[in-house]
Specification:
single chain; 188 residues; alpha+beta; 4-stranded mixed beta sheet
Length: 188
């Protein structure tokens, strides 16, 4: 299992949800078949277990449907982002989802650098940049500092934003880590 914030997390989450969904489905199917074949009735404990297993089945189905449209960075884009991170002696968070009552937004790559949060918005999401910034501004609720939040649409734009920033001071690095921890709490 890939840890949240690492490249490949979304792909791993999709596979895990799909596997759990099928496991629950086959358990439900087996319970009902056993009840019908061996007891010639649906009024058994096996059917009750099948009904109870419908809850995790539905949970995993909904979880899979929420992440099915997410497209992570390609391998080439990932290498480019890692080169940018190495150049600045920092790490980027990958495959980030941010959930809010209005919906879910996906950010294939997020840079947290010198009290700045720069999110790469996934192409194809029908959302305005202003709204995408509002989703990421939820990181401001946790740490005591209020980071500047920017959303870009390409890695070139992210590099341009990072080039504008000066390297963080020693005390800022700890605040950036708190911002990153808060970012990991925002999605699934």
């Amino acid at each position: 299992m890939v840890a949240k914030g690492n490249y490949g997390y979304a792909r791993s989450l999709k596979k895990r949800r799909l596997l759990l969904m099928f496991a629950c489905f086959f358990f439900i199917l087996a319970d009902v078949i056993i009840s019908l074949v061996f007891f010639q009735t649906k009024k058994t404990l096996f059917v009750v277990l099948a009904c109870i297993m419908a809850i995790p089945f539905a949970k995993n189905l909904i979880g899979y449907l929420m992440v099915i449209r997410y497209q992570p960075l390609t391998e080439e884009e990932y290498r480019e982002a890692e080169a940018m991170a190495a150049e600045r002696d920092t790490t980027f968070a990958y495959d980030i989802s941010v959930t809010a009552p209005e919906g879910v937004l996906f950010y294939p790559c997020v840079a947290i650098y010198n009290n700045n949060v720069i999110g790469l918005l996934q192409a194809g999401q029908n959302v305005k940049k202003k709204d995408a910034v509002e989703y990421l501004k939820m990181v401001q609720e946790g740490p005591p500092t209020k980071p500047r939040v920017v959303v870009v649409e390409s890695l070139k734009d992210m590099k341009r934003e990072l080039d504008r920033l000066s390297p963080p001071k020693e005390d800022q690095i700890g605040a950036d880590i708190k911002i990153a921890e808060r970012l990991m709490e925002l999605g699934f």
